[in-house]
Amino acid sequence: MKSLFTSGARNAHQQPGPSSSTDPDSRMDLLTVPESPSSRRRELSNVFNDFRRKSISELSLVMDALRGSPSPGSSQYIHPERASQSTGNLNPPQSKKGRRRRKVQKTWAAMSPGNFSKQLQLVQEEKAMQAVPTAPIDASKFVAYVQERRKKRILFKGEYLMINRSIDNNKCRCDVGSTMMDRNPYPDTVPYDLNRVTLPRIDGDENSHYINASYVNSWLRDKAYVVTQAVRTKPMNAEFWRMVWELGSNCIVMLTKVFDFMRVMCLQYWPLTKFQFREIEVETTEVKTYSHFVIRTFKLTRTTSESIETRIVKHFHFTEWELDSFPYISAFIELRRRVRQFMEKNPVDAPMVVHCRFVLLFSVRGAANALPSHRGGRGHVGDERVQNIERAVADVLL
What SMART domains does the annotation carry (predicted)? Predict the structure, then answer.
């Protein structure tokens, strides 16, 4: 500041004219720093004026953002985006002048309002990652826990980031499904290699082992469920029934309509009376229609050169789940009760087959940093913590 005032006084003595008047007010004008027309400086001025009105807790976030380094704590709470940027100095050595120029450019880039806001957001998300519980939540505190996160949505983002950090990318590979685009009803939704359903090869077809379906574990046993997509083509009808037969399943839960808003959500893969799907004959023996769901009974018969086998399969079709909406909760709970009642009376060592239009509830896209939401998904099950989420959802629903 001293040098600033000295230079201002020197300029006042050197520059003649109206500005060099002996008027004290004019001299004080010479001692002030003129406002820069630069938009960058004006934006910085507005940003710092906003910061002056912030609380102590908010100012601590500002200081962390200005420091540009992770907040104190374990390295597991470092934001993934910040960790990906710390790759070290990979540039070749430069001259002293070049290093100075790069340092100045880097400093101005760090002081830009856009970068500063981004750093502030990263610090806030790191704070939210530290607030993620590391132990089970007591039932008496669960309501308050949810209400707090409904008010502070960034706490959900912190949980999301912590779950993403736990995903093992080696378990999220989908190399097989990516090469079977003609066998995927939805090409952007393929199963992980780790837990996909593998069928026996038939008819000398090397790709006949593949079907877009995945195993999901429950709290009680592994591979309790198989989640798959809606049948969209006639060749997939035969593949679907072959999967049901090979798995030995006696229960199918369908969570989508056949038609919704004049759109075909799923082909009717079951016959009204009887139909032959390759070597498997499917016969509809009973249909019970309720207000929100339909329960069908199928008789499956497989004829080979050695024997004839017959099985009974129950089909629970929930018909009141509109597109892009929530189901009727009371009706959905009633369907769940009937499914469990049937499974308790007819236990089998085979998974339950569940499908909707596409696998909405059990999807994870680890490589693209997406958690159970399937519109941008590429797989079905990720790491252990993600599987725990899916187990809870599956057990609650079914």
Answer: PTPc
